[in-house]
Amino acid sequence: MIGIEIIASVNRENAIFLTGETAYVLVTLRNTVQIGNSLAWGCVQLHCDQIQGKEEKQKPTDSVTSLSHGKTALYSSKPMIIFCDIKLNSGELLEYSGSFEIPAKLPPSFKGSFVKYSWYVTVAVQHVDAPFKLLQLPLRVLNFNIPIEMPLNTAGNPFLAQNYKQQVTIRLETIEEDLQNDKNVPNVTTHAVKYVVTMFMQDCQCILSIPGNAVPAFTTDVVCLRWRLHFDFLVSNGSPIDQSSIGCSTIKKELQCEKIPWDHYIQVHACNPFNVNLACPTSISSVTENV
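User: That's the sequence. What structure does it adopt?
Assistant: Structure tokens below.
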């Protein structure tokens, strides 16, 4: 017999959490048929799966099932039984809840070129004398890394010796490195770019916005994600001023310039999950299924 609607939701607007937080799950059951209905049992469980890219998947040798597709379970909590042998009258509604602590040392939700990490809560229910059914509620998990290691100041910065810095380009980037295959070129994603003409300037300031839904740096046995500021300095040895005419100074039409790249790695921390809602207005916090 079918006719029981199951709604699984979390205790916030969007299903976004930090590692180390406790996620509270509410399961609502409602009988949608005109007669009484029953369920044998129901449980909830928290999962974290790792899915490797197509090139990294290891082909099974003797397995003929459809389960070996590069998907690996990194974490599964103990199943939490939330009800057993219940009966719902027509239109009756019952609510059950469970909670899970998200481990701090596991990777965050991430979809990259080499690997994907997904978090979700499964709700399993079973009618009497019928196969059990699963309902999955996806979660967005952000990692929270502490402490922060401040970069050391270097007195021998080679860029301080340049007299004429004409332009600088600053990019906020993430670098995704495949730790299982050195032949794969690291995947670089640019999140923000700033161009500044620094001719005749002693210093300059710029603002690069970090996306609210960005994934902080993390490392697993498969992938390493790091954040950096990539600088491209356009410098010249000669003065850009042309003083060929007496009493008149102009800018040279052509300059012999050289581009000098420099990478400065930074530590990015997760923001408040409630603020991530502003960057993820379309994410869901509940799922519904009829069983």
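The chain has two domains: 4-144+273-290, 158-266.
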